[in-house]
Design goal:
- About 25% of the residues lie in helices and about 40% in strands.
- With about 90 residues, it is of the alpha+beta class.
Length: about 90
């Protein structure tokens, strides 16, 4: 994939206990992305997305809303370098 990118997002708000990680994984898989969505100890969710730049941008837009039960207060995007490797698929943890 010639335009592969890697981005880390940290999502704050009511994002734990509302199927945020599972919904994020479904959306990422639909977009053909690899990576993960994991709960952080402080109540936020970290999302690592690896794949096409356009797909990452679409996931970023989706993260601004999240699933219906979520309340997203902010999404912080951090570049992690385009050489980041992710296992096939998209995992939650």
């Amino acid at each position: 994939m010639h335009d592969a990118r890697s981005r880390r997002f940290v999502v704050a708000g009511k994002v734990q206990g509302v199927f945020f990680r599972a919904s994020t994984a479904r959306e990422a898989q639909r977009l053909g992305l690899r990576g993960h969505a994991v709960n952080l100890p402080d109540g936020r969710v970290e999302v690592l997305a690896v794949g096409a730049a356009a797909a990452i941008a679409e996931l970023h837009d989706w993260l601004q809303r999240g699933p219906p039960a979520a309340r997203v207060d902010s999404v912080t995007e951090l570049a992690v370098g385009d050489s980041v490797e992710a296992a096939p698929g998209f995992r939650t943890g």
